[in-house]
Amino acid sequence: MMLVRGKDMISIMVVLLVILSASGCLGNTKSDHGWTPSTPSDTPILKTLFESVGQTHKEFYLDSDSTIIITIKSSFNIENTSFRYIGIIPSKELMNWEKHVFNPSLVNFSWIIWNAKDGSYRVHLQKGEYYFVFGGVLPKQKYLLGDTVVVKSYKYLASKIPMEWPDDTNVNLHLSIREAGTVEVYFFSEYEFKVWKEGGTARAYFIEKRATSGVYHISNFLNPGTYYLIFGNSNSGVKTIDYAIYVDHYPNFAVSLEIRRERQ
Question: Which domain holds residue 208?
Fold first, then answer.
C-alpha cells in the first residue's frame, strides 16, 4: 500500500479539480443544445394560472433593474377571444387598480397591452415590487333568441324568455316594427309577470311605453331563470314586430403566465 504525503495529496486534489472543471462536471448542466451555465435566470420569477373564477393579480419582485420576458398561453371555450388587457403596476398602485379595474385609464401602469393575445412580451423594469394584473377577457355578443310576432289592436302578447347562463350580461333587445307607430314594451321576471297578469302593480326590469324600431338596453345582469317580454298595441290596426335578444357572454378560460429574467 502506497502512502501519499500531505503536499503530494494537495497537488493531486488540485489536478483532479482542474480535470473536472475542464470536462464540464462542475458548475454546468447538460442540455439538448450543449452545455448551458446554471444561472438564477433559469428559475421563473413568477409562474401562475388565471382562470374564469379566481385571482386577477399576482405579486413579484425584482432585486435589480431587469429586462423580463412575459410568456402567456391560454385556452378558451370560444374561438377568437382576446384579453381585455394585461399589465404590470407598482405594488403601491394595487388598491387603485382594484378600484378601477374596468377603467384602467385611471391607473398608473408600468406596462400595459390592450386586446392581448398569446405570446411573449419583453419589458424593462426598474428594481422594485410589482403586480402582474389581468383585466379579464373581452365578451362576445351572443344571440339568445328572437321571433316575429303580430300584436292585434288593443291587445298584449307575451313571449317567454329563458336565461340559462349566470355569466351573461348586458341584455339588449333589438326591435323592428314593420308598420308605422309605436308599441309598448315590458320585461318582467316570472314572478312579476304573474303580478302584472293579475292586474297588480308589477316591478319591471324594463318599460318603454312608446317604443320604435331600435336597440334597447334591458339590464346589465339577469340571474338564470325565466323572464317575459311583453308587447302592447294601443293603436288601431295590427303591429308586426321582429325582435331579437342579445347578451354579452364571457367565455370560460384558463391562462398560464410565466415571467423570467432575460439572460444578460
Answer: 140-249
